[in-house]
Task: structure prediction
Amino acid sequence: MKARSYPFVVLRMKLDKLGFEGEKGQLFWTTPTARTSEAASVRFELAGDGRYHDYVLPVGENPRWQRRITSLRFDPCSHTGAKVSIEEIRLSEDGK
Result:
């Protein structure tokens, strides 16, 4: 997949509760020349209310979102025992 074609990743998920104030989710990616790393990731604010929310991640703003993306790793939250339901993960041209 060519990164420049899809500058957004859209996630639809719900989380039962936050593990701590300010907890964030994180999406990582790899390319043929770069491994998974903090630099090749985006963090986002979470809603821990048990309802579905759409999270629009502007991955195209990160200079490491380039060339061909070979894999994604999604960490929906960072606390143990979380109840997470993911309805959709998709690449988007316009964030919709």
